[in-house]
Amino acid sequence: MVRLLGILFLVLGGFFRLSGQPEDTTAIQALYDSAYREGLQDPAAALRLIEQGEENSRAQGWEAGLAEGLSQRAMLARRKGEYDEATRLFAEVLSFGEKNKNLRLKGSALNNLGILQWNLRNYREGLVFFQRALAVQQIRKDTTAIANSLSNIGMIHTALGVHDSAILCYTQTLDLYQQKNHSKGIATMYHNLAVSYRELGNLNLSNEYLHRALPLYTSLGDLTGQINTLKNIAKNHLKTENSDSLLRYLQPALELAKKHGMLKEQMDCYEVLSEHYASTGDYRQSREQLQNFIAVRDSQFTLDKTRQLADLQAKYEAELNLSGLQVKIEREKRIRQGWTFFAIGLLLLAGVLGYAQVMRLRRNKAEGLRLRSEHEAERLRADSLAREMEFKNRALTAKAIYLVQKNQILSEASQQLKELISRDKPVSSDNLKKIQSFISQNLRQTDQWEEFLIHFEQVHPGFFDRLRQVNPQLTAYDLRFSAYLRLNLSNKEIAALLHATLRAVDTQRYRLRKKLALDASQDLVVWMQNI
């Protein structure tokens, strides 16, 4: 307590000094800009910069500066996944912008509210916010802001699968960025156009845009852009089954991600590698890449929890800073009432604050222990669920592969027996016919399908019910075919499982698309995996 009072009286000495001239708004805006950059790496440091900017804005009576502080707090909350808090803060900024006719703040708030809806996958609501933001930016005639809004509208169209509309938005955005010679924006639009054209099946044009984007990202030193571009070129080659080209682009992307500790990008690369080796039939390599993916994902989970604890510490420090600010305001009021009254009131306040601080520290210590315990329990539960889901998926995939191999063996044996029967040799045709009949009966058995169905329902509960809601007239054969598509099996594997020809599988794909009323631009496998 003696130390606390000593610090308090040391701080009080500053109140007896006259304040100098207030800083201009440019310095405050610089604080917020720094907070935005710091928020990407160090949320606690970003929060301290925001608080400094808000304090300076209050000192100058700059209301727009306080609104900017709310906007920065909202961005920080969005990055931490606190979407409800971010939505509330951005709504306050929007209200301020509309009330004070501040088009810059209004447009920024509308744009950020659209991004929040996109994060929550409320794409229709997000589109409305982005369109309103575009209208505001067109009034302001801010080319960069207009380009940003158009790009966001294109992003929504991409999420909705309306790729022609997305390409139109990205092309308009590209023109604006080229007028401004905005290299980062140009590279981003090349990348977005490449993804859209790939979804439409135009891999040549997709590769052309990706090869335009890659040198721009490299010159900018944008590692994320480089890695994502290399990865998408590799994914294009995955579709064309060009193994050498795929590895030539994917390996440098993975090495960059490892070198710079970029966990999410490493996960993406391992996922593509696993898909590649599975498509070539090298299931051992596919399993190893999947294990690498899981290991990196666990590291990312641990890192996220560490950041959450740092955020809690930042909130605690913010509460202490807020208490100090309240003391300062109270002290300034008492100075105006006279030195004697100020001194008496200050001594009383010091005792109350000392007691309150001790109690607060005790409560925060207990709360911190409880939160750490809860977070640890949550981590263990999440890890257990993830391992259980991974085990079930592996079991389901292994079962599907087993069925493919079994049917291929039986089909080949049946064909060989047919050839023996047709030859004029001293072989008992009756016995051979019995063997052929036995194999054919095994091919038609549904016991393995029923066992597979049980595993499938455990991993993908409600999948068949959702399909029947789309079209109640779907047959059992349609549902079985849809399950194999959900597992992303190739036409060859599906043909072996259904004991059908590749042409019959293609025909069934066409019929199923008609029953589900899918557009030509919609990928059937992606649709099955997202339903």
Tell me what you see in this structure:
This protein is mainly alpha-helical. It has helices at 2-15, 25-38, 43-60, 63-79, 83-99, 103-119, 123-140, 143-160, 163-180, 183-199, 203-220, 223-239, 243-259, 263-279, 283-336, 339-422, 429-444, 447-459, 463-470, 476-486, 491-498, 502-515, 524-530. The longest helix is centred in the C-terminal third of the chain and has 84 residues, at 339-422. The protein is elongated, with a radius of gyration of 31 Å. The two termini are 62 Å apart.
The proportion of strand residues reads: under 5%
Q: Please report the total strand number as a whole number.
A: 0
Specify the biggest β-sheet: none
Low-pLDDT parts are 1-22
Overall average pLDDT: 82
Shape: elongated
Question: What's the SSE blueprint?
Answer:
Layout: H1 2-15, H2 25-38, H3 43-60, H4 63-79, H5 83-99, H6 103-119, H7 123-140, H8 143-160, H9 163-180, H10 183-199, H11 203-220, H12 223-239, H13 243-259, H14 263-279, H15 283-336, H16 339-422, H17 429-444, H18 447-459, H19 463-470, H20 476-486, H21 491-498, H22 502-515, H23 524-530
Helix pairs in contact: 2-3, 2-4, 3-4, 3-15, 4-5, 4-6, 5-6, 6-7, 7-8, 8-9, 9-10, 10-11, 10-12, 11-12, 12-13, 12-14, 13-14, 14-15, 15-16, 16-17, 16-18, 16-21, 20-23, 21-22
